[in-house]
From TrEMBL:
Keywords annotated in UniProt: 2Fe-2S, Cell membrane, Disulfide bond, Electron transport, Iron, Iron-sulfur, Membrane, Metal-binding, Oxidoreductase, Respiratory chain, Transmembrane, Transmembrane helix, Transport
GO molecular function terms listed in the Swiss-Prot or TrEMBL record: 2 iron, 2 sulfur cluster binding; metal ion binding; monooxygenase activity; oxidoreductase activity, acting on paired donors, with incorporation or reduction of molecular oxygen
Family label: Belongs to the Rieske iron-sulfur protein family.
A Pfam family matched in the record: Rieske
Membrane spanning residue stretches: 56-77, 92-112, 162-181
Biased composition (Basic and acidic residues): 1-14, 36-45
InterPro entries: QcrA_N, Rieske_2Fe-2S, Rieske_2Fe-2S_sf, Rieske_Fe-S_prot, Rieske_Fe-S_prot_C
SUPFAM superfamilies xref list: ISP domain
Sequence ranges assigned to domain Rieske in this UniProt record: 244-335
Region feature Disordered, mapped onto this chain: 1-45
Name used for this protein in its record: Cytochrome bc1 complex Rieske iron-sulfur subunit
Length: 352
């Protein structure tokens, strides 16, 4: 008598429990091996190999030319007059030079690896990495084999053109750094003097309302500008002057304020004023921790201790924040005793 098999029962029979989980029985997959090697045209035709080599070093020399052009374009199309046409031409031609330099070196490297380097498939077994002599000898042998397969040591035109292209590709970026500084301006002179003068009142930023000493409570912090700055227009250099003169004003308990002997007259009843421009790269130091009396630069996390002359206690900044000497006038307003006694802003080569 024929017996019908339940399909569900048959499926359940093909599963076996393993560690509490049901797994299906399957046949192991055999390793199919590597596909048949197909030779490239450059492997079969010496003339094609020579053309590929010539193409690679021509691309590298094109990259070299692009880098040189980017530097030349930076000088041929100056942006000192700040006109839109000058800025447009400078960005266009410098950008084209850098694009050619990077694109040619990238295409050349890819064509080198695809058409010239060894194209043989191989299997590299995994093994434990150890610092034995045999391991070091094997590493040397691997580098020697890579050099032989790539032809780096034998193909002088490719090697030399690659070195020239890579070195030259860095030069446009270095050249452009010059544009970060004002042209024909002495940085020492530019940063050594700000708007602050003797008797000039400290005012709220940006309203320009003068600040009285009685308004500054313990633990408070005020963003401050010189009072006359609020009357300047952008055409008169408002931003340039503000970038150098911005100040943070804070009041600390007298028993927590540690001042150098030659600066004890620079504060008033625990009220101190420090430049807001970080001495690392010039970011605005805008965060004040009331309990610790620390100022924090949000750009690179430099920290300054206000209770100890704004000394650097953390981060990449190399110098304390410059202090603005202050006093109080007959009407109770906080005024500057003088300008800063040192250049504000980040460190630079010419700085003393």
């Amino acid at each position: 008598m024929a017996h019908e098999v339940d399909p569900l029962e048959h499926e359940r029979a093909s599963w076996k429990p393993s560690s509490g989980l049901a797994v299906a029985e399957t046949d192991p997959v055999t390793n199919p091996g590597l596909p048949p090697h197909r030779e490239r045209m450059t492997d079969k035709d010496p003339a094609a190999l020579k053309r590929a080599v010539r193409t690679v070093y021509i691309l590298f020399y094109l990259s070299l030319a692009g880098s040189i052009w980017a530097i030349a374009a930076y000088m041929l199309f100056p942006i000192e007059d700040h006109s839109l046409i000058a800025v447009r031409d400078n960005n266009l031609f410098v950008g084209l030079g850098i694009a050619l330099a990077l694109l040619a070196i990238g295409i050349g490297a890819i064509h080198w690896s695809k058409a010239i380097m060894s194209d043989k498939e191989h299997i590299e077994p995994r093994h434990a990495t150890r610092g034995r002599d045999t391991t070091r000898e094997g590493a040397v042998a691997a580098f020697a084999a890579a050099n032989e397969e790539s032809g780096f040591g034998r193909r002088a035109m490719i090697r030399n053109s690659l070195f020239a292209a890579v070195i030259a590709s860095i030069l446009p970026g270095i050249t452009l750094f010059r544009g970060l500084a004002p042209q024909d301006v002495d940085p020492v002179e530019a940063l050594s003097h700000t708007m602050w003068k003797q008797g000039m009142r400290l005012a709220h930023d940006p309203s320009g309302v003068p600040i009285k000493a009685s308004d500054v409570t313990i633990g408070s912090a005020f963003h401050v500008i010189p009072e006359p700055l609020a009357q300047l227009s952008h055409a008169d250099g408002y931003l340039d002057e503000k970038a150098k003169a911005i100040v943070l004003l804070m009041r600390l308990p007298l028993d927590q304020l540690h001042e150098a002997d030659d600066r004890k007259s620079w504060s008033y009843d625990g009220i101190v004023a420090y430049s807001k421009v970080c001495t690392h790269v010039g970011c605005p130091v805008a965060l004040y921790e009331q309990l610790t009396h620390h100022l924090l630069c949000p750009c690179h996390q430099s920290q300054f201790d206000v209770s100890n002359g704004a000394a650097v206690i953390f981060g990449p900044a190399a110098r304390p924040l410059p202090q603005l000497p202050i006093a109080v006038d007959s009407e109770g307003y906080i005024v500057a005793q003088s300008d800063f006694h040192e250049p504000v802003g980040p460190s630079f080569w010419e700085r003393h």
